[in-house]
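ARCHIVE CARD
Drawer: 12
Card no.: 0347
Subject: one protein chain, sequence and derived structure
Cross-reference: see card 0346
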Amino acid sequence: MSRTSPDIIARRIRQGSGQEPPDLVVRDVRLFDLVTGDLIPTDIAICGDTIVGMLDRYQGPNVIEGNGRVVVPGFIDTHLHVESSLVTPFEFERCVLPHGVTTAICDPHEMANVLGTDALRYFLDAATRMVMDLRVNLSSCVPSSSVETSGAILGADDLTPLMDHPKVIGLAEFMNMPGVLAGDPDCLAKLAAFSGRHIDGHAPLMRGRALNGYLAAGISTDHEATRADEALEKIRKGMTVLIREGSVCKDLAALAPLLTVETSPFLAFCTDDRNPLEIAHEGHIDFLIRSAIARGVPPLAAYRAASLTAARAFGLADRGMLAPGRRADIVFLDDLETCQVSDVLAGGRPIGPALEQRRTIPAPGRDSVILRRPVTAEDFTVSGSGTGHPVMGIIPGQIITDFLTLDLSARHGGVEADCDRDVAKVAVVARHGLNGNIGRGFVRGFGLRRGALASSVGHDAHNICVVGADDGDMAVAVNRLAEIGGGFVIVQDGQVRAELPLPIAGLMSDAPFETVRDQLETLRAATRAMGVTLEEPFLQLAFLPLPVVPHLKITDHGLVDVGQMRVIG
């Protein structure tokens, strides 16, 4: 960690104690006290990037007029993948800083599964140039599963050279739960290398003795709890549960009843995966705060979860409260209960001028979508009789899927989709140039009645995932993704109807977030015209390949029952 010079500390002491004027005075605000929940009239004195005075009145050469507005600490997103915003880290901060998010803790897991350490180094280099404080947890599961083909492999020896970077907190979400419990050597090597550092968890549905063993590895947080009783067991066992509300995974409604003033030291907020369209419509962490309060959560509990608990859980002792010695991340609110953000200071700087002055860097990973050959309609033929065929069932608001068995028609040498019963074909096509694998299966829940949707965002190995009612349209969509370097594509009757290029690692756009937001609106309208009923069909599509024990999973090797680890299609 970087050290503060004696001269800077001396300036802070003089300004805080009134021996000299502060660099900046935030005048006439009402501080929302995270200790008592009181609103306290005050000025705030700032020296450089640090608060040095409060609960007093100050004079200085530079003043920001609060005009009686409420101020709270900057919000902390405790777990997210910037790549899921579909824009670069620099566009991400431009998108979320106005919503009061001054710190974000990211796992570059998506880009790392495509590019390996080049992705980690890009995020670390970008973080040193950003206005918000982007912290990085190094990706623990690259690849995330042995039944997929990813673009990279990262072992403990690849991660440890980066662990002392000033932007690194620790090890990112440890998704390989079976590996932890079985004492897999690669898992143990990573856990040992980061012993004593923060290690993020990823433990959906884990309870009882299995959870005990998982926590004994040194893992301390989890963002996968979907039920209040599950979350309560986890916080009773010492975890900090990160309440997630993303574009697909929406757990706030289930977990909000658990968030009280008493439990707030053990619950924080995260978005995990949230795109610019939903941020524009709803917000970011500010949306979680106002939604929690609307569901009856006390404001004190909600704002603690958004800042103080988050800071403590990740060892960020220099923030989380508006207090002397803490980082001057200040959010101005026009209304406390609805979390209406009007202005933001990040490290003592108004975010507008700061964003204009920072310098960006180019991203690696162009031309990362590599097919061994163009695919054809015949590549999506699913063999079998169709009797008792396995089908993934979408659960709205969740990334886990139901394991269904349905009787499907078999004609022309293959099992067919059944749009009348909302059953479409789904396939994963290897795109890292390492092999030509294609996994095939069926999914119910998209509402698709014609055409095809394809995405190069396919958690976690990020092969191409395509769902369709027509094999020919599926082939056109996959080949088009290769042509544009990745992204989202909609095809109907052999023609591309809409697309969103994501040329950076096949995951992120190089366009401003406003452009991506508008393109997502166009995609959403096009999918609705094809009968799709899901609110975020491309994000749901991206999660279909995700390994979640014991549910059905599509990989580039085939359709797999992860519980038994056998290819069944």
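Annotation on reverse: Confidence is low (pLDDT under 50) at residues 548-552, 561-569. Residues 377-568 form one domain.
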